[in-house]
């Protein structure tokens, strides 16, 4: 999510003069999480912090996790899966077995406990937005398959939910 600057687009209506318009005018009607779509405080029209629309606190335990912690947890899970796959394929390199190890080390702990080993180390937890205690296997599989492509994790809304989290109906929260 980009903050601190505003993008503009030059538009030319049919038969009219060109004009400079903010991008939010175009994306506000269809991009979820944009301030145009309605916020909990209709008087100012702005979301004050990530997770406010979800009813989460601004800071501390239970708040939406930042991108840095999530990325570090992801990298740690990748390294751990490479080590696990390497232990089974030694002295050869693990090749694609590390992808299988990563998928298993992501799906199983997320479905059962709501966190991977990397998330546990960095104080993160995957929780369902409907309040159910366990994430469950179907949601964990959907989230992991989309996370494999990386791009859905980078495209986020104002609540810091990646496309993979929104598709699974979950959010990544801080535990400490």
Describe, in short, the structure shown:
The protein has 176 residues and is mostly helical. It has helices at residues 23-27, 67-89, 97-113, 117-122, 137-148, 151-154, 163-168; strands spanning 8-11, 19-22, 124-128, 170-174. The protein starts with 7 loop residues before the first strand and ends with a strand.
Helix content: 40-55%
Q: Indicate the proportion of strand residues.
A: 5-15%
Distance between the termini: 23 Å
Order of helical and strand elements: EEHHHHEHHHE
Residue windows where pLDDT falls under 50 for at least 5 positions: 25-30, 34-42
Number of helices: 7
Sheet with the most strands: spatial strand order: 1-2
Largest sheet: 2 strands, antiparallel
Structural class: mainly alpha
Q: Given the C-alpha coordinates, what overall shape results?
A: elongated
Number of strands: 4
Oligomer state equals: single chain
Radius of gyration from the CA trace? 20 Å
Task: Write a structural description.
With 176 residues, this protein is mostly helical. It has a domain at 67-174. The chain is 41% helix and 10% strand. It has 7 helices and 4 strands. The protein has helices at residues 23-27, 67-89, 97-113, 117-122, 137-148, 151-154, 163-168, and strands at 8-11, 19-22, 124-128, 170-174. The strands form 2 sheets. The chain has a two-stranded antiparallel sheet with strand order 1-2. β1 (8-11) and β2 form a beta hairpin. α2 (67-89) packs across α3 and α3 runs antiparallel to α5. The radius of gyration is 20 Å and the shape is elongated. The chain starts with 7 loop residues before the first strand and ends with a strand. The model is unreliable at 25-30 and 34-42 (pLDDT under 50).
């Amino acid at each position: 999510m980009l903050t601190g600057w505003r993008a503009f687009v030059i538009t030319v209506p049919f038969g009219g003069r060109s004009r400079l318009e903010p991008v939010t005018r175009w994306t506000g009607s269809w991009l979820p999480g944009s301030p145009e779509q309605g916020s909990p405080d209709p008087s100012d029209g702005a979301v004050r912090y990530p997770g406010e629309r979800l009813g989460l606190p601004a800071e501390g335990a239970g708040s939406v996790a930042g991108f840095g912690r999530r990325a570090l947890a992801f990298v740690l899970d990748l390294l751990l899966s490479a080590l696990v796959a390497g232990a089974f394929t030694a002295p050869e390199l693990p090749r694609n077995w590390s992808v299988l190890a990563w998928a298993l080390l992501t799906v199983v702990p997320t479905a059962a406990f709501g966190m991977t080993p990397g998330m546990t180390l960095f104080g993160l937890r995957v929780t369902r937005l409907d309040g159910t205690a366990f994430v469950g296997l179907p949601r964990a599989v959907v989230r992991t398959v989309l996370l494999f492509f990386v791009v859905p994790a980078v495209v986020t809304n104002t609540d810091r939910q990646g496309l993979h989290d929104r598709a699974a109906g979950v959010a990544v929260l801080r535990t400490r």
